Target: Hedgehog/Intein (Hint) domain-containing protein
Amino acid sequence: MPIPHSLTRAARNAVGTSALLRDVGTQRGVRRPKLRRYEVSCLSPEGEIVQARHIAPALPIFEDAFCAFTRGSLVETDQGPMAIEDLLPGDMVVTQDGSAQKVLWKGSLTLVPGQPDSRGRTHPLTRIMADTFGMQKPLSGVIAGPSARLLATPGHLRHLADGGQLLAPVQEFLDGLSVIETMPPTPVELFHICLRRHSVIRVDGLQFETYHPGINAIRMLGQSLRSLYLGLFAHVDSMGDFGPLLLPRAGDGEIDAITA
Model:
């Protein structure tokens, strides 16, 4: 899938963002959403790194694209472990099958996990203690963001996996001892990445998925919000460009849709 000429499109999206948000906020019976600042790094068609700042709604489908890994999380690359904040588009990340894929997009945002938003939602982080999933899994304590998913199946979801592999939200592993919830009262920077296709990568010794909006995402967005959402991703022109899910996912209806 070639990277489209996205800089012109990004400029159009920047000009049109305020109009789209006004349209959303003035719809009858729809409360204007709180806005959030999203930081994006991507590759231009010429292979250069382009950084952009977007203002978009603080809605789950937008936030989930940015909220998987905390600062300091070590991602396995072809050059060895690299902190997520130092990873750049163009770097090669090692995937589950042993191949290396190029990072096409990295997003970040800053939020206060313990502070409720306008709809009363908080954004708890999940702390995973060292060796929770076996020796050096993780290597040391890991703090994952609210949209992180692990390639692992908690006991209460095994009936969904049907003997296969499953990508499960980190919150499904909470046990109050080795995996606990934490909500710092101070700002936390969170990150996520996209590769050319949905993949599983190793972060701090654990297997996490790269970003994919999910197969139900198109039904969650109206036309105006869909255009604003796609404007965050220079490497796609439509929802279908994210490609298929690598594995079934739990937590947002994906299981029912895949196995039906």
Notes: The first helix runs from residue 6 to 26. The first strand starts at residue 35 and ends at 43. The chain has five helices and 16 strands.
